[in-house]
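Blinded run. Sample ID left blank on purpose so nobody reads anything into the name before looking at the predicted structure. Input follows.
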Amino acid sequence: MNAAHAQRRRALLQELKTRNLDSLLVTHPPNWYYLTGFTGEAGALLVSKDGATLITDGRFTVQAKDETRGVKVALQQGGLYPSVGAYLKHMSGRRLGYDANQLTVAQLNALKKAAGSKWRGKEASGLVEALRMKKDAQELAVMRRAAILAGAVLEEVLKFIRPGVREREIAAEIEYQMKKHGASGPSFETIVASGPRGALPHARPTAKKLRKNELVVLDLGVILGHYCSDMTRTVHLGRASRRIREWYRSVQQAQAAAVAAVKAGVSCGEVDSAAREVLKRNGLDEYFVHSTGHGLGLEVHEDPRVARGQAVRLEAGNVITIEPGIYLEGVGGIRIEDDVLVGAGRGEVLTRVTRDLIEL
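Blinded prediction complete.
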C-alpha cells in the first residue's frame, strides 16, 4: 500500500495548491493512516511540498518507521502541539491549513504560541476526507471482504437467536464470531434491540430476554484490514402477523428503491427521497426518523451523507449504506441496511444476506 499512500499525498498536495496552502496539519488517525499507513493512535502529520513528517512520541517512533515509507518520523519533544509548532519554524512554507473539526482551541493556541510569527494558519477542514470518499481498487477489495464477512457472521448468529436469550448474549456472540472469522473487531457497538426496544434506532443491548412474536433488529459491522462494513437485518421470532409483513414489505421496497437510485451523478438527496416516497405511499414516512444512509470506509460514518436535501452528487468509487427503517413506539422497529458501491451505471450491493423477512 506504500505506493498508494504516496499517490494520496500527491493528490493532497494538488488540493493544497488550489487552496493556496503550503502545508496541511493532519491530526485525525484515520486520515494519517490513509496518507501514510501509520496505525498508531498518537501524533500529528505535516504534509507539504517538502515531504511528509510524522511527529509522534517514543511509544510509536519505531512503529511509525516500520509502517511508513517516504515519511520522515520526528520524535515529539514535550507536548505534541508545542512540538509541532517548533517544527513549523524550520519549514519553508508559512501558510498551514488545519482541520477545525479535529483541533481544540487549546491545541490551536499551543501551536500558535510555539510557532510564533512563522505560522499563518488557515482553516481547511475536510480535505483528506474528500479524498477518502472515492475508494481505489485496493480499498474496494478489502471492503468487499468486510461486507461479506459481516454477512457470514450474521448467518452464523441466526442459529443462536431464540426466545429466552438475552440481547447482550447475542451481541457478545456476534462480536465473538467476528473475531473468529478474522475481523479485528466491530466497527461500532453492535445493536441488538428486541420488541418495543427496536423502536430505538441506536438501542444498546441490554439484559432483556427475547420473546416469541417479537421483532429483533440486528445492526452490526466489522473492521477488516482497517476498513468497515455496516449492515442491518430485522428478524421475527415466530410467524409474523399480516400487519408486520406489510410493514416489512414497505421497508424492503423503500430500500430497493433507494438502491436502484444509486449511481454516479445522482445527488444524495435524490437517493434519500427514493426511499421516503415509498414509505409515504404506504403511510409510514412519519416513522422514518433518520437519514437513508452514509459513507463508509476507514470509519463507519464518513462522507457523503445520504440524507434529505443533500446536494452532494455520488461519484463512482463511493461506498455508502442504504438503511431505511420505521420505528413504532410500543411495538418495535424494522430496518434493512446494506453496503453499496457506487458505479457509473448502477450500484453494487456488497452485503450478501437475504433481505426477505427472516422468521425464526
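Unblinding after everyone has recorded impressions. The radius of gyration is 23 Å.
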